[in-house]
Amino acid sequence: MRSLFSERVRRFTILQPLAGRDFRLLFVGQSISLFGDQFYIVALPLLALKLTGSALALGTVFMVEGASRALFQLIGGAVSDRLSLRVILLVSNVVRAAITGVVCIVLAGGAIRLWHLYALSVLFGVVDAFFYPAHLAVIPRLIESEELNAGNALMRGTSRLMGLLGPVTAGLVIYKANLAFAFGIDAFSFIFAAGTVWLMREALLGDGASSEPSVGLLESIRQGLRYAWSDSLVRDLLIYTAVVEFAFVGPSTVGLAMLARQRFAPSGTDAAAASSLGTMLSAFAAGMLVGMLLAGSTRALRRRGRLVIGLGITVAIGLVLVGLATNLWAACFVFGCIGLGGGLTNIFVLGWLQSKTEPAMLGRVMGLVMFTASVLEPLSYGLSGALADLNVTLMFALSGSVLLLASIFSIVSPAIRASD
Fold first, then answer.
1. What percentage of the chain carries pLDDT values higher than 90?
2. Do 2-202 and 224-418 share a fold?
3. Around 330, how many Cα atoms within 13 Å sit in the side-chain half-sphere?
4. Cα–Cα distance between 157 and 287 in angstroms, integer?
5. Which of 368, 386, 393, 394 is 20 to 30 A from residue 29's alpha carbon, by CA?
């Protein structure tokens, strides 16, 4: 039975990682966890607004979660290189199940207060800072290097798929039941994910130790920073991904919302703007999903550097064109193409970093990737908002120009241009 399943999945490149028992367990557990997260994503804002009626309060709840995650991201990466990845994943899921379970009980008892949500956000931010570097570092330990694109595409593609399907389901469940039930579903999803990690074979993961026992945690972080800077390919890829994140995340949220309200809401109503924004975001999400699946269906590529550079230039041009679009469907088409390019780039660059980074440094490098994104996101939001208030077309033109400059930087980088 097992050999028949393995034989069937190996016919399709993107499914080949599922032939491995431990990766299959990780994938199933994380998929259920991601589905449960959609209930949290829908329920938390509704609960914050129900308690306070303030968008500012809601914003600060998300802000403290992001700040907590950024503050501990490098520590989480260093710990991932020192301890068992299996233990980190297991403990993270158990802690998150306990946190959401407590919120579920307190909410059902009618004793929920705003400070509970701040505590929830801080704890989630800290736990995520340890979970995600370990999660990204464990994938190369479970599958062959030529399967990294497929493995990452399965994980990230599933995340996008759950992001498309989960919120609708969560909204219906909350409508029929209540907010406490939504937090309970999320808690159960973490318990399920913890169970799948428990069933994995620890021998395949290694013990995660990469440093001498005498080396302290701060020195371990410094070692990771020195390694990332001294390896030209890793350094240039980290810089490139940081600039891409900075140039894209603000325009794709703040700028797109402004574009929907100013240009694609002819009636001037909130409903028309929301419909236009939702349509554009759906086109982007669909493009991302297709791009990730395409990337996962390819085997190890040669001249990945030139491909990534070409995709970056294409996305940069697309951002400029979105700002110039006067028709909603034209904007959706362009933004869908941007999503396609972004999905391909996301998987190719992540697999590239995982394959080229020394295994002993992988957790710290993955933590550094996430740290730079966490730090640059607020700045991107702020600058995009200021520029969009001034001129939304100018904002998209400048963001595209920044991304184009990053691609030009990659062209003059021998490490990226010439590397396979």
1. 22
2. yes
3. 12
4. 11
5. 368
Helices of type H across 85-147: 85-108, 114-142
Whole-number Å distance between alpha carbons of 265 and 277: 9
State pLDDT tens for residues 118-171. Answer: 898 899 989 999 999 999 889 988 888 888 888 888 888 888 888 777 777 777
Distance (Å) of CA 22 to CA 123, 196, 285, 409: 28, 9, 28, 39
CB 9 within 8 A of CB 15: yes
pLDDT computed for residue 29 by the predictor:
95
Q: Which CATH class is domain 2-202?
A: mainly alpha
Token pair, residue 380, equals 């991107």
CA distances from 49 to 39, 125, 181, 370 (A): 16, 20, 17, 29
- Identify the pLDDT of residue 93: 96
CA distance 38 to 202: 29
Which among 357, 130, 416 is positioned nearest to 224, based on CA atoms? 357
Contact 345, 311 (CB under 8 A): yes
Reported as type and span, the H/E element at residue 239 is: helix 232-250
State how far the alpha carbon of 243 is from the alpha carbons of 7, 74, 96, 176, 301, in Å.
41, 19, 31, 43, 24
Residue matched to tokens 């570097």: 133
Residue range 224-418 forms a domain whose CATH class is mainly alpha
Q: What is the pLDDT of residues 73-131, one digit of tens each?
A: 889 889 988 888 999 999 999 999 999 999 999 998 888 888 888 898 899 989 999 99
Residue 214, pLDDT > 60, answer no
Alpha carbons 317 and 298: distance in angstroms, whole number: 25
Q: Using alpha carbons, list the distances in angstroms from residue 373 to 38, 44, 213, 234, 376.
A: 21, 23, 30, 16, 5
d(CA 290, CA 339): 8
**Per-residue pLDDT, 216:** 78
Domain definitions of the chain by residue range: 2-202, 224-418
Residue type for 260, please?
A
Contact in structure between 334 and 325 (CB atoms under 8 Å): yes
The label of the residue with tokens 């994140």 reads 245
Query: In angstroms, how far is CA 331 from the centroid of its own chain?
Result: 24
Q: Which of 91, 95, 71 is nearest to 80 (CA)?
A: 91
The span from the CA of 355 to the CA of 371, in Å, is 20
CA dist 353 and 51 (Å) reads 43
